[in-house]
Structure formats: C-alpha cells, structure tokens
Design goal:
The structure holds two protein chains of two kinds.
Chain A (H helix, E strand, L loop, with lengths): L12 E10 L2 E11 L4 E5 L6 H9 L6 E6 L5 E4 L13 H5 L7 H10 L15 H14 L4 E5 L7 H18 L2 E5 L5 E3 L4 E5 L3 E5 L2 H4 L2 H14 E3 L6 E3 L5 E3 L4 E2 L51
Parallel strand pairs in A: 3-7, 3-9, 5-6, 6-7
Antiparallel strand pairs in A: 1-2, 1-4, 8-11, 9-10, 12-13, 13-14
Helix pairs in contact in A: 3-4
Chain B lengths: L3 H26 L3 H21 L3 H22 L4 H22 L7 H6 L7 H20 L1 H9 L1 H6 L4 H23 L4 H13 L5 H26 L3 H18 L5 H4 L4
The chains are: A alpha/beta, B mainly alpha.
Chain lengths: 309, 270
Amino acid sequence: MLQTNTRTAAPLVSLTGVGVRRQGRWLVRGVEFSIAPGEIVTLIGPNGSGKSTTAKAAIGVLKPDEGSVARKAGLKVGYVPQKLSVDWTMPLTVERLMTLTAPLKRAEIDAALAATGIRHLARAEVQHLSGGEFQRALLSRAIARKPDLLVLDEPVQGVDFSGEIALYDLIKTIRNTTGCGILLISHDLHVVMAETDTVICLNGHVCCRGTPQAVSRSPEYLRLFGARAGQTLAFYQHHHDHTHLPDGRVLHADGSITEDCRPDDGRHDLLPTGGRAGPMRIVHTHGPDCGCGQHPAPGGEAGGERRDA
Amino acid sequence: MLDDFFIRALAAGVGLAITVGPLGCLVVWRRMAYFGDTMAHSALLGVALSLLMDLNLTLSVFAVAAMVSVLLLLLQKRGTLSTDALLGILSHATLAIGLVLVSFMTWVRIDLVGFLFGDILAVSRGDVDLVWGGGILVLFAVVRLWRPLVASTVNPELAEAEGLEPERARLVFMLLMALVIAIAMKVVGILLITSLLIIPAATARRFSASPEAMAVAASLVGTVAVVGGLFGSLTFDTPSGPSIVVAALALFVASLLTRPRPALRQGDPA
C-alpha cells in the first residue's frame, strides 16, 4: 500500500472502550479503533448498529458516556453527515455551501468542485440538486477545507453504481495526494471500498475487523462486478454468530439469550485485540495493522496474502 | 411638514426594521417562528414585573424573554415533550401570568392595548436612541457570529464537527432575540413583533441568491414596510403598528405575484 509508512505516525483520533448511551439503552459499546494519517477505516453494520454514533463520538459531536476519545490537537475535520437537508427558505448555492464553515479562496472552491465533477453546478441552488449531485457537493465542501481527517457518513447514498466507483476513486486520490485519514461509513453491509485499510463491522459493539483486499481480487468477484469495479469495491465477507433482538436482548448461536452483548461477556471467542474468530469468517489480507491481532509481524499487505477461516 | 413625533416614529421604525432583517431570516430558516412568538408573549410578563418591582421596562422584558428561552433549552434537553408543545405552554403561560399580575395591580393604570399593539407614534427621543443603540449592538453581534449561525442552521453537527461551536451561537441568537423583542415592543407591540421578523424575510426570499443577500433584502423590505405603514396610518388614520404589518403583508403578496429570479431555476436538473 502507498501509505504504509505514514501509518506509523501518531493517530489522528483514537477511541478506547467508547460507549454511547441514550435513554437507558447503549447505542454502541466497547468500541476501539484509531485512524492514522493516510489510513482509510470503513465502518459497516446493519441499521441502528451505531455506525453514525461511533463516527460522531470520534469527531466530538457526541460525548461518549464511557471510554475515551483522544484527538490530535488542532485536528481539522471535514464532515459529510448522513442526513443534511437545507430548508428551502434559505437561498444557498453550491458555491456558498462550500464556504459554510470557513472562508475559502476562489481557486480552492473551483478545484474541489472540479474534483467531484460538479463545477458546472457552482451557481445552482442546493435544493435543486439531485441526490447524487448533492452528495458530490457535500463531499466537495468537506475536501475543499483540506482536512486532516475526512469523515464520510454514507457518502455514496443516492449515487448510481458508476458514480459510486468514481467517488471511491476520488476518495482514494484525496487520501493519496493529501495523506489525510478517512473514516468512511458504508451503506452496504458487504461491499466496501477496496482501498480500505481496516473494515470494522459494528453491531452495537465491534463484531469483527479486517482488511478487504483479498476478496476483491477473487475471480468470482471480478466476474460479478468487472475488473474496473474490482479495483474500487471489495467484498467484506462475514456472518454474525448472534442476532440482536428488537427488545435489545441478544440471541446467540448456541440458542442462549443475554441482556446485552459485550466482547468480554464470555460468549464470543476473543482475539487479543478484540477482533474475533470463531464461527465468524473474516477473509482478509493481513498487514501490520489489519487489527485481527493474529499476525503481529509487519509485512507488505499486498504481498503476504493469507486467509483466515 | 411632518411633525416631530412622526419623524421619531419613522426613525425608530426604520432602525428596528434594519435590525430585525437578518434575525428574521434566521428565524425563518430555523423554523422558529413560534419560538419568536413565545418570547414576544412573555414580554407581557416582563411588563408586569417591571411595574410590580419598579424596574426598567426594557431590561425587565429582556430578562424575562431570555429566561423563557433558557427554560425552553432546559425543557428540550429533558426531551419529554415536543418543542411545539413546550412553546405552547410557555407562550400562553407567560402571557396569562402577565395578565393576572397586571390585574392585581389596581394602583397602576396600564394601557394594555399599547403594549399588545404598540404605540410607535408615542416613542420618545430616548426610545429612538434605544432602538438605534440596541440595533447596532444586535447587528454587530449578528455579523460577527454570522458564519456559525448560518452553518449551524444548515446542520448543527456539521458546524460542531468543524469547530464552530453551534451551542454558543444558538445561545447568543436567543439572547439577541430577547433584546430585539424588548426593543421592538414599543414599536409594533407584543402581538405583532413576530410578523415584523417573518414577513420581510419571507418576502426577501424570492429575490435573494444567498443567505447574506436575503438578510440585507429583509432589512430593506422591512424598512419599506415601516415607511409605507406609517404614511398609510397617517393618511387613513389607522393604528400605526398594525398598519406597518399590513404594509409588510402587501409587499409579501406583491412578491408572490412576481416571477422568481431566473438563477433560481438554473440548477434544475434536466
């Protein structure tokens, strides 16, 4: 990988045992990960699994009720929220949206809009954009301010498949040229951006983590999505050994039911760093920080491919 | 020639219209019209307290309006009732307590209609100074906090993530609203303050390409409404406060009949 060496730098943000509780219910608990400069971390998980909550805790929008979040001093964040609607009563052009949180130079605005391919929409009102165009505008806004950490909550929602590939390409380019860290939330439980260094699957807690590269190179995948997509998207293949019931309790594979689901409740097979093996299959390429904890020895991620089973 | 009292009324009205333009836009964008109404209604409680305890009227109205907004913030945090219902409770509770208090004070003769609908033709030189002094203060604060205010209107979490402290902006916004209501009460009265905030902003929307342009346009529309309303009230011998609101409404209706500016449609897909 291009940015391997930069990842030895101090993390931009690191979460330790983070939990967020709302109205007596833990939205998410025991979350641990960090993002280094140049690293792409993707959060996946079913609806209500705490992806957005985790991202908000990472950038300080939500205060965690337990655990801690350490951010680099003066960390500059570029944020694309999951939901953003501009009331039609506010006249807001794409151009003006760009300078929403900080002033920018004309050239910086043009460059960011050109990067996402919507320069022709600079003077359009945001309320008139299509879903995909609006996502591009939000992404332009977030990258224009040259952040240290880019947090993208489902940035490709409403974007068609080829547009999705183009946007992921762009995110990769941004990472490679600016060296910023990226926290990406994927709307798809199984397909993630191929450049992702670490995939973290959440379901109220960290279910599993790994890197997705190996799968994206598999012949079955390439046949399904084509070689072009293979460079951009990857499968993250896994299944869960427990189900979260509607009432908040947890049904385990052995048929038992518990009140909640903690990595240390003895019902999950534990790996040293909190990653998990057992019935869950993580197919990934190992690297120095793939997070699975099983292969501490440093090595080229693109090289030593091995498969967990 | 125009009489002195009419000149003073014009000066106070125009000063107020310019001040409330940007705040009115924020109220419209944030869908806080009912919030403005609630704070305005609480002004009567401020009036009653000022009479009861012999306090400065403007300060007392400001204090009560500010307290109501803080109370709303606290109740919202508890999250048991919708903001809508909370506003309904606070709005009419404060108005009713104010009216009850006033009725107890048999020793003061109070011109209730004057407070409810305003008496701009009776403003003193001191009132004019207050409107302009307070107005300059409000505008200065709004200009300084404009970016966080607009950004947190679009999305508070985005503003927070990118370091703009939306909570502080929101608090300052509420204090500015309380100040404007305290100032505006004499000009258009408690019941009509919200209209002076909202109608010019709504009118300006159709002619504006940016939030900033809309804020300035709202001030201009408000100014035209004040001048038009005052001359109308002079000509037709109608009450001045309501006349200003009717003039603003006429401008709004006229704006509905015009075509939106072409740039509005530029971004239309296809």
